[in-house]
Amino acid sequence: MIPSITLSNKEQELEHLVVVVSKLSKLPAGIFNSAEKKYLKNQIENHKKEVVSFNRFDYWVFLCFIKEEKDSSKRLESCRKAGDTIAGCLNAHKALRVAIFDVEGMCSEILAIAEGMALGSYQFLKYKKDKDNENTLKEIEIYSKALEEAGMDQPAEDQGKNIPHAASRVIRPAELNILLNAVARCRDLVNEPNSHLTAVSFAEEIEKMAIDSGAVAEILNKQKLEALKMGGLMGVNSGSTEPPTFTVMEWKPADAKNKKPFVFVGKGVIYDTGGMNLKPGDSMLNMKCDMAGAAAVAATVYAVAMAKLPVHIIGLMPATDNRPGMKALVSGDIITMHNGMTVEVLNTDAEGRLILADALSYAAKFDPALVIDLATLTGAAVRAIGKFGAVAMQSKAAEELETLKSSGFKVYERLVEFPMWDEYGELVKSDLADLKNLGPSEAGMITAGKFLEKFTDYPYIHLDIAGPAFLDKRDSYRGQGGTGYGVRLLFDFVRGVLVR
Ligand code: BES
Ligand code: ZN
Ligand code: ZN
Asked: Given this model, what pLDDT does residue 170 score?
């Protein structure tokens, strides 16, 4: 559980308090005495602190100082990080509740601080008996005249109704709450080890998310996948003792603003041993994260449905583990995919593109306006840009990718575009089959994207999230382990449909 965020207009009681200002001259009268003001001024001006804290009796007071920063993306990110720092301190002091006081009407900044506090309080303690270090923070209350006046105290379901146009660009606390809970559910799924998650139980978890949110889920089982001739998914699954699944999750509200749906496809490799091309040494560590794309897609549909956004979206989540069982694929095998194309499997560790290719060709039946896939697809993407963003590529969706990139800056799940040049496509053509699943050693994230593109004929965006999906070391509110990367990005993109 992460703390909830609510907008409050009740009289303030004495409780842990965060005061947010952009200038020292704005320090509200009546909250700080002159000694405190002097201390705050010194910490901010001379020690360049952005968060200053002190305690009064049994509660803590934080001053969050928003430095001048013209780039709103960077400014909001510092707010999230400040929120994480504050939450760390509050949790260390076993605080249950905190109030954030908006002095200057900085709506987005206040919400970003709350966001960082909530996400930074996330923990995965399911398998720990000793819960002494469990975070205590449960409630984040925002006191903001500006948010109230903008009608932001409305419940999430009223999206688009009676809300002034401009105000709806800012996410409402009720919606933010839904979104952050979806991120936490995504992280939970990614952090779940293979010993406790199979393709079948993963599909059942997604089904639960559909039931909770009012979306519709359908699980295609092994028999159905055989009938659909999903040779990629079946091929990868052939070394496993657990059957594969393919979950379709749909949110189709009667008042949808889009005629054709947005389809999101997520790589759901429950665990990637590499298959017969077994991953060597440490490289198998953390491969429970290989379903992070599918988890992000499920959590996005869940969040959009929970918030009742009037946008028609569909999530496709092919799932299996990749293991070197007796019937596993071996190098040189040729498989026939859902769309009839043949693929020479040169490396069983390049399995993600095989299961995604089937899902992408299946996506065509929904006549999509746009398909976006999310996949922990290549080590090459990690080597190219590290953990601070995802690799993006597009075909027939240049404008859509620009929009998605700006969502990326806004929520700080940034994207770096790589090319879909034809020459890279030549590198995955096979002598024996239509395609091969392995390109040369260079530009691996691009040849993987080109491979996938062959299974699409609609506007398409490919996101390789192998870098940012999972962190070995804690990084502020992104946490340690599964980050939930992609959920806030896609949610903002979907929400954007309503204000674009
Ligand atoms: N799941 C891995 C990619 C990955 C690497 C995810 C690091 C997260 C962190 C993927 O299935 C894989 O093994 N890719 C291979 C492809 C290669 C054999 C063409 C890789 O990148 O090494
Ligand atoms: Zn692999
Ligand atoms: Zn993989």
From this structure: 83
From ligand 1's centre to the CA of 270, what distance in Å? 14
84: three-class secondary structure by DSSP: helix
**Residue 448 CA: which ligand 1 atom is closest?**
19
pTM (2 decimals)? 0.97
Give the neighbor-by-neighbor strand order of the sheet with 435-436: 333-336, 342-345, 435-436
Q: What is the share, in percent, of the chain residues with pLDDT greater than 70?
A: 96
Kind of pairing, strands 139-143 and 97-102?
A: parallel
- Spell 65-95 as b/e; 16+ CB within 10 A means b: bbeeeeeeeebbbbbbbbbbbbbbebbeeeb
Per-residue pLDDT tens over the stretch 193-215: 999 999 999 999 999 999 999 99
Q: Which residues pair with 248 in a beta bridge?
A: 218, 316
Q: Which residue among 279, 378, 424, 447 is best mutated to probe the pocket of ligand 1, counting the most ligand atoms within 8 A of its Cβ?
A: 378
Right CATH for 4-153 from 3.40.50.1110, 3.40.50.10260, 3.20.20.70, 3.40.220.10: 3.40.220.10
For residue 274, the CA-to-ligand 1 centroid distance in Å is 8
**Which tokens sit at 249?**
């999750």
Neighbours of 480 (CB within 10 A): 16
**What mean pLDDT comes out for the span 16-34?**
92
Superfamily of domain 179-499: Zn peptidases (3.40.630.10)
Which amino acid is present at 424? Y
| Enzyme catalytic residues | 279, 353
Residue showing tokens 């559909």: 210
CA of 141 to the centre of ligand 3 (A): 41
Q: Whose CA is nearest to atom 16 of ligand 1?
A: 350
Tokens at 483, concatenated: 């980050």
Express each pLDDT in 382-425 by its tens digit.
Answer: 999 999 999 999 999 999 999 999 999 999 999 999 999 999 99
pLDDT over 90 for what percent of the chain? 91
Atom of ligand 1 nearest to the CA of 378: 21
Which residue's CA is the closest to the ligand 1 atom numbered 14? 378
Domain range annotation of the chain: 4-153, 179-499
